[in-house]
Amino acid sequence: MARLTQADLASVNEKLEQRTPQELLLWAKEVFGDRVAAISAMQEAGCVISHMLHSTGVKIPVLFVDTGVNFQETLDTRDRLASEYGLEIITFHPELSMEEQTAKYGILYLTPEGQKQCCHMRKVDPLLKIIGTYDAMIGSLRRAEGGKRSMAPILQIDDEMKAVRINPLALVTDEQLHGYIAEHNVIVNPLHHQGFSTIGCNRCTTPVMPGEPKRAGRWRHLGPWSVYCGINPSDRDPSKAPYLEFPDELVDRILGRKSDFMI
Ligand code: SF4
User: Fold this and answer.
1) 148 Cβ partners below 8 Å, 6+ apart?
2) By alpha-carbon position, which residue is closest to atom 5 of ligand 1?
3) What is the pTM assigned to this prediction?
4) Residue of the nearest CA to atom 6 in ligand 1?
5) Dist. CA 100 → ligand 1 center (Å)
6) For the chain, what is the domain count?
7) Where residue 227 sits, what CATH number does that domain have?
8) 171-223-159 Cα angle (round to 5)
9) Which of 108, 123, 180, 190 would bridge 118 by S-S if both were Cys, CB 3.0 to 4.6 A apart?
10) 140-179 pLDDT tens trace
11) Is residue 257 in some structural domain?
């Protein structure tokens, strides 16, 4: 086994930044084979990744966590992407229904501490149960989102999921994203047309007023300290130096030592 750190990924990240998102999806399939999946909350960037998987024909499943309190529009978007783009979308659920959770713990999402616990149980735990299934997970973070995501690298160590997080859209601007959606008539969550700039659970997401930050509609009732759910490595404590332990041969492939594919 070999240790893979964020520092090890620096030079490969520099090279991958020259590639298009579609080329990065091909690279991911080439390097990780069947041990790579995309993860999507059915927001517009995730829908763009889904369209790119469809248009390139790269067979990578899409993972979706149904928290049990998603908007119906979000579930409908998932179903449309699966049927119209022919994607394999795998849905995960929390252990407890929201009713069971509330009976046991109270209404958690009404306090900052409770929100962390609720997001962990409903969004993070269902994915933690599949640790070891995938060596890489494709996300849809973009630097243009700002905040903690403004430095999101293409490849990032996700020590919680024990996988490499791949952000093929890291360098894509808002204009480029919306241009792609318009040009390809991408299926997107219709809530984006109703004032929602980002979309999470129906308990904790509201539309955003003109001039407000994009994530102002997330956990609005809790104030500005709760703006992430903790599912993305970019949103966690940056002072940690996480690492992964992978077979030597996989580390060689990730770093391009034994294959010159795309690098
Ligand atoms: S967004 Fe709100 S309802 Fe959804 S998991 Fe987090 S705290 Fe719970």
Assistant:
1) 228, 234, 235, 238
2) 119
3) 0.91
4) 119
5) 14
6) 1
7) 3.40.50.620
8) 45
9) 108
10) 999 998 887 888 999 999 999 999 999 999 999 999 999 9
11) no
